[in-house]
Amino acid sequence: MNLKNVFHFCCGNQKHKISMAVNILTTDDLQKFKDEFFAEFKLMINRQTKSDSPNKREWLRTKEVCKMLGISLSKLQYMRDNGEIKFTRIGGTIFYSLEEINKLLSSNSNQLKAF
């Protein structure tokens, strides 16, 4: 919805009038934005087909991370709950940044070399 507000102000001896449009967002507008955003996001994720190597993609799903780290689903859940691994939840799907996974692997390998 577009409304037009007119503001009057004085500067010295002169009076000025400013007219500007005001946009009002409704809950329907926000719902439409959310639906469009998730549709675009799903398209982006689906472009990363199952045949792509996980090492070539920017975002990984839970099962791919478990396989990459050699851990169980419950261990990954434990790591998420304790803040040991960063993740992003979109809707009901959890994504992990490949860059963050690689940092985690690097930091753990450095710790192992210290012993």
Looking across the biggest beta sheet, what order are the strands in? 3-5-4
SSE arrangement, N to C: EEHEHHEEH
Overall number of strands: 5
Strand content: 25-35%
Largest sheet: 3 strands, antiparallel
- Gyration radius (Cα, Å) is 25 Å
Name the overall outline: elongated
The percentage helix is: 40-55%
- SS summary, helix count: 4
List the domain count as a whole number.
Answer: 2
Distance between the termini: 65 Å
Mean pLDDT comes to 78
Summing up helix and strand content along with how strands pair, one would put the structural category as alpha+beta
Low-confidence segments, given as residue ranges, are 111-115
Describe this structure in words.
With about 120 residues, the chain is α+β, with helices and mostly antiparallel strands. The chain folds into 2 domains: about 1-50; about 55-115, no CATH class. It is about 50% helix and about 25% strand. The protein is built from 4 helices and 5 strands, in the order E-E-H-E-H-H-E-E-H. It has a 3-stranded antiparallel beta sheet. A hairpin with a 2-residue loop joins strand 4 and strand 5.
Secondary-structure map:
Blueprint: E1 2-11, E2 14-23, H1 27-47, E3 59-61, H2 62-69, H3 73-81, E4 88-90, E5 93-97, H4 98-114
Antiparallel strand pairs: 1-2, 3-5, 4-5
Task: For the structure shown, list the relevant keywords.
alpha+beta; 2 domains; 3-stranded antiparallel beta sheet; two-stranded antiparallel sheet; disordered C terminus
Write a short abstract of this structure.
This protein has 115 residues and is of the alpha+beta class.
